[in-house]
Amino acid sequence: MWRLTGREFRTCLAVLILVTVLLSKIFGNEEGDALYIFRNNLQDPNNVMDNWNRTDKNPCKWNHVTCNSLDSVVRLDMGNALLSGQLVPQLALLTNLQYLELYANNLSGHIPVYLENLTNLVSLELYTNNFDGPIPDALGKLFKLRFLDLSSNRLSGPVPQNGSFSLFTAISYANNLDLCGPIIEKPCPGSSPPAVSSPDGDSKPNIGAIVGGVVAVWCHYLLLW
Ligand SMILES: *[C@@H]1O[C@H](CO)[C@@H](O)[C@H](O)[C@H]1NC(C)=O
Ligand SMILES: *[C@@H]1O[C@H](CO)[C@@H](O)[C@H](O)[C@H]1NC(C)=O
Ligand SMILES: *[C@@H]1O[C@H](CO)[C@@H](O)[C@H](O)[C@H]1NC(C)=O
Ligand SMILES: *[C@@H]1O[C@H](CO)[C@@H](O)[C@H](O)[C@H]1NC(C)=O
User: Which InterPro entries match (predicted)?
Assistant: First the structure.
């Protein structure tokens, strides 16, 4: 009788595992599962997520969810829905998400850094909630972002300026607790004020810093040599 050698068996097993993983990627419901966890972590007194049934093969018919032609989620429209609670890291699995509309709820906790993984995001509207803590500057990596509204929360700390943040103005951050930075024209505590006029006495330390910097760069190249 024909038998597989150990080596053939292992190859066969590897191929089988690969095929299973690929099939579960294609036919599995990873995005639906992620949204279901999102739902389970929220209070939803108006049952706006009523028809989110985990046995569905994808979440594309669920209320407030929109998919593209490949049945991947591109929009979550849940503004004004009386939702309370915190966001979950599984949201980062919605890799094709373009619109995350969660404004005018009662969501709390920090604005999660893992949203940086939603690299297709065009619109992030979280205004009128109870988010607190800093604005993660990693979100500057969302290079497709065109609409950002974080106003009317309880955010504090510096408003980031780099990456996509350079596109937005003070309106995106209005009515928060304690934000600061050039974009909202409010100096951060301990930051140097804009260098308009500096008293004479300040020039020495600056020269010191410049000389220090030049020496540091020079040493660096010397070491590389
Ligand atoms: C989910 O869908 C299945 C199959 O259509 C149905 O049997 C079940 O009752 C639904 N569950 C809920 C909670 O609606
Ligand atoms: C975000 O992406 C990074 C890099 O790919 C990964 O290490 C991290 O686990 C992701 N975070 C989430 C919450 O998926
Ligand atoms: C808002 O959420 C907080 C918890 O974060 C909860 O204590 C409060 O009852 C919620 N308010 C409403 C109106 O749902
Ligand atoms: C913005 O700056 C911060 C810290 O300086 C950095 O961690 C982040 O990666 C930068 N983001 C972009 C998009 O350059």
Answer: Leu-rich_rpt, LRR_dom_sf, LRR_N_plant-typ, PRK1-6/SRF4-like
Distances (CA, A) of 204 to 41, 199, 209, 210: 56, 11, 9, 10
**Which has more confidence, 208 or 162?**
162
Is the pLDDT score of 50 beyond 90? yes
**CATH (domain of 86):** 3.80.10.10
Q: Nearest residue CA, atom 9 of ligand 4?
A: 138
User: Has residue 207 been placed in a domain?
Assistant: no
Task: Give me the long-range contacts of 195-204 (CB less than 8 A, separation at least 24).
Answer: none
Q: Name the residue of 50, 53, 63 whose CB sits within 8 Å of the most ligand 1 atoms, as the mutation to test its pocket.
A: 53
- Name the amino acid, one letter, at 207: I
Give the percent of the chain with pLDDT over 90. 71
pLDDT above 90 for 5: no
C-alpha 97: how far from chain center: 11
Cβ partners under 8 Å of residue 68, min gap 6: 74, 96
The domain in which residue 41 lies consists of 6-152+161-169
Q: What is the dihedral of CA 49, 55, 59, 65, to 10 degrees?
A: -10
Which residues in 37-76 are b (16+ Cβ under 10 Å) and which e?
Answer: ebbeebebeeebbeebeeeeebbbebebbebeeeebbbbb
Quote the distance between the C-alpha of residue 73 and its chain's center: 16
Instruction: Name the domain count of the chain.
Output: 1
The answer to whether the CB of 53 is under 6 A from ligand 1 is: yes
